[in-house]
Amino acid sequence: MVFDGPASPGLTLAPLQRSGRDPCYRSAADGAIWRTSLMRTGPVTARIVKTAPDTVECEAWGDGSAEFLDGLPELLGAADDDSDFAPAEPTIAEAYRRTPHLRLGRTGRVLEALIPAIIEQRVSGMDAWRAWRALVSRYGAPAPGPAPTGMRVPPSAEVWRRIPSWEFHRANVDPGRARTIVGCAQRADALERLTADRAVAGLRSLPGVGEWTAAETVQRVFGDADALSVGDYHLATVVGLSLLGTPIDDAAMVELLEPLRPHRHRAVRLLYASGMAGNPRRGARQAIPNLRAL
């Protein structure tokens, strides 16, 4: 497919990758991106390659291939509209100047974005990624086609519903997050029918799904350019350091980014993608108990 301007599938798809060992996403040495998904019509493995500054090619295998390819333009951000984005804030404006090719993609698959976001609630990224990898590797189906070794298709809603509590425990997912995952999987059909304008309200009506989890989900599913991840352990600090030179809290971040509506999430992505994001000292979101040892 040919884009109207430069394409950057690596930047667009980056939020879908849960660490370099994600069984559903691999970046190959030849520059190809491998991604698996469970479409309505079945599983799919896709190999996505940038072949020219404005051209991306994709091969797909599995029963969900046709559906995946139909949605490829939106997945790669072809429908992203930043025509009304004209940031006055100088750091954001410079980040936009440096990274005009950033596009926000849309997967259209709610459960595949929601469940890893739930796993990431209130824990360090490394702990969440290990849990995601363990559960998907055990309960996901083998990736169709010539996928890299170890790749899996995300589990179906039915499979998530039937994972025993002790398997969540072994993956170091506490009972609260496990209940939320199972509860969301039980409502999967309704969740997949959500539309962009009702998604946040629909997600936040679910027990265990708050503002941060809903935002992280709609960013990926609908390419929501304004979904700000309020409640993230590092984000307010990053925004404060980037724009003001000092850490701030969530309330101050919301106030600071208010003039950027409806592109607050886009502004945050630009800070990271351009390399202009302030770098806070890293640490766990909270002390993480090793549930597997209990």
From TrEMBL:
Keyword field: DNA damage, DNA repair
Catalytic activity entry: Hydrolysis of alkylated DNA, releasing 3-methyladenine, 3-methylguanine, 7-methylguanine and 7-methyladenine
Keyword DNA repair: yes
InterPro entries reported in the protein's UniProt record: Alkylbase_DNA_Glycosylase/TA (IPR051912), DNA_glycosylase (IPR011257), HhH-GPD_domain (IPR003265)
Enzyme Commission designation: 3.2.2.21
Enzyme kind, highest EC tier: hydrolase
A biological process from GO: DNA alkylation repair
Gene Ontology CC entries for this record: cytoplasm; protein-DNA complex
GO MF entries: alkylated DNA binding; DNA-3-methyladenine glycosylase activity; DNA-7-methylguanine glycosylase activity
Name of the protein this chain belongs to: DNA-3-methyladenine glycosylase II
